[in-house]
UniProtKB/TrEMBL annotation:
It comes from the Bacteria. GO terms for cellular component: membrane. Its EC number is 2.7.13.3. Residues 185-237 form the HAMP domain. The keyword GTP-binding does not apply. It is found in: Membrane. Residues 252-468 form the Histidine kinase domain. This is histidine kinase. The lineage of its organism: Bacteria, Bacillati, Bacillota, Bacilli, Lactobacillales. One of its GO terms (molecular function) is phosphorelay sensor kinase activity. The chain crosses the membrane at residues 165-186. Residues 218-252 form a coiled coil.
């Protein structure tokens, strides 16, 4: 409110001061013009002579003129060419200062705003403002007239303007105070709504939205606030989803670890107390070995993901033929696929140049194929590769259970499982395989995307760029 009021008062004061100064200058300019007109007329009369060769400006005429002009608070004095005052006659010898007189002799007119403040013609009882005008005849000074009006008379319109401006200022203060109160109430009411909404958000309520008409900066702030709350709500929902998946992972990990540990412990106790028949010991030891490897794999996947996420691995990128790696993967994983009646098909060019870390590239494709095997029954898994401009594109396509849009949104996040109910023993049950793939692709400066429909299957596409064309994202 004080800010609005201060702006209004400052603006009115500046305008008022400028207007007052303009009125003052105009009043003095008009007075100088009027006095100069009188002086020039009298000068013309001073140069005119009657039939007897006497100037028209006789003492009687000047006395009569002074009587007439006195009613307008106008007085005048006349000096001859020798700087002696010839009208009105006084006992004293009154002269203009040499400096002033020399200026007048050069034909220059002098304007006097206040004779009591300026040392030009001396002081008088009442302050006068007027002009000193030289009368010249053929470039010779024949006389000087000082004619002026009282300052009080000239400044009367100035005083009137000052009163009007004072009244205007008072009215403006009153109106400005009312407007400031209205505007302040209007603005502070919006700010209070923002403040209350902020308190709700601070308490965890992310469903707050402020209604506004988008008319001013505060409404714009409300728009940004609403957008911020929506983003916070989205982030909060994602955090809750992450927490839920993490809890699920911990439960799954505990379950997965409990089973092999129980098996291993049971076999060890059987061996310790010689409760296992001699012919069953090789099978028991083999089972214990498989369960131990399963635990190691689960732990390694977590450690591997942390290293990749924190950029603690060094990629040794070279140019090699990706088709050979894809053939090896097809051979390596065909047995796992056959267990669930899946078939791995390879469709690629030979050779298929690629610039990548060979071991990490193998890990990317293996994880994608194992993920396809995990969610496909009695189907086909197609590995394909082709060259693009300055890049190599690889895809793993299956006709498994697929995913909905919500699942696709989180598929590359840690601990996420598209269908936990169908996770079974083997690589991939930890929910880290696709997170590792996404991180490795990004560290290669490449891209990964997924297309999927429920009960139609999924297509994972990876693009690895050639040297110098990588697209790293912060």
């Amino acid at each position: 409110m004080l800010g609005f009021l201060l702006i209004i008062v400052t603006t009115v004061s500046i305008i008022g001061y400028a207007e007052l100064d303009y009125v003052k200058n105009q009043a003095y300019a008009q007075n100088f013009q009027r006095m100069d007109s009188y002086a020039q007329s009298l000068g013309e009369m001073a140069k005119t002579e009657d039939k007897n060769g006497t100037t028209i400006l006789s003492g009687t005429f000047l006395n009569q003129l002074q009587f007439v002009l006195k009613r307008d608070n106008v007085q005048f004095r006349i000096f001859d060419q020798n700087n002696e005052q010839i009208y009105p006659k006084t006992p004293e010898d009154i002269k203009l200062s040499p400096k002033v007189f020399n200026t007048l002799k050069n034909g220059q007119e002098i304007q006097i705003r206040n004779n009591n403040l300026e040392n030009s013609i001396g002081q008088t009882k009442s302050a006068y403002t007027g002009v000193l005008v030289p009368w010249m005849s053929e470039e010779k000074l024949i006389g000087v007239i000082w004619i002026g009006s009282t300052v009080k008379n000239v400044e009367r319109p100035i005083a009137m303007a000052r009163r009007n401006l004072t009244n205007a200022l008072i009215i403006t203060l009153f109106v400005g105070l009312i407007l400031s109160l209205v505007l302040s109430y209007y603005s502070t009411n919006k700010i209070k709504r923002l403040s209350k909404a902020t308190e709700k958000v601070a308490k965890g309520d992310f469903d707050v939205q402020i209604e506004h008409k988008n008319q001013d900066e505060i409404d714009q702030l409300a728009t940004n606030f609403n957008r911020m709350v929506r983003e916070l709500k989205k982030s909060n929902d994602e955090i809750k989803a992450q927490e839920k998946r993490r809890d699920q992972f911990m439960a799954d990990a505990a379950h997965e670890m409990r089973t092999p540990l129980t098996t291993i412990n049971g076999i060890l106790e059987g061996l310790q107390y010689d409760a296992i028949p001699e012919e069953s010991k090789p099978k028991s030891i083999a089972l214990m070995s498989r369960e131990t490897k399963r635990l190691i794999r689960l732990i390694n996947e977590n450690l591997d993901y942390e290293k990749i996420r924190n950029n603690q691995i060094n990629l040794i990128k070279t140019n090699f033929d990706a088709s050979k790696v894809l053939k090896d993967i097809q051979t390596q994983l065909s047995q796992n696929a056959a267990k669930v009646n899946d078939q791995i098909i390879l469709e690629t060019l030979e050779p298929l140049p690629i610039y990548a870390d060979r071991d990490r590239f193998t890990q990317i494709i293996v994880n994608l194929v194992q993920n396809a095997i995990q969610f496909t029954r009695d189907g086909k898994i197609v590995i394909s590769g082709k060259r693009l401009e300055n890049a190599t594109e690889l895809s793993v396509r299956d006709n498994g259970i697929g995913m909905n849009d919500e699942q696709k949104k989180y598929i590359f996040e840690r601990f996420f499982k598209a269908d936990p109910s169908r996770a079974r023993l083997g690589t991939g049950e930890s929910g880290l395989g696709l997170s590792i793939v996404s991180s490795l692709v990004k560290q290669h400066g490449g891209k990964i995307k997924v297309e999927s429909k429920e009960n139609k299957g999924s297509i994972f596409t990876v693009i690895i760029y050639d040297k110098g064309y990588e697209q790293f994202v912060d």
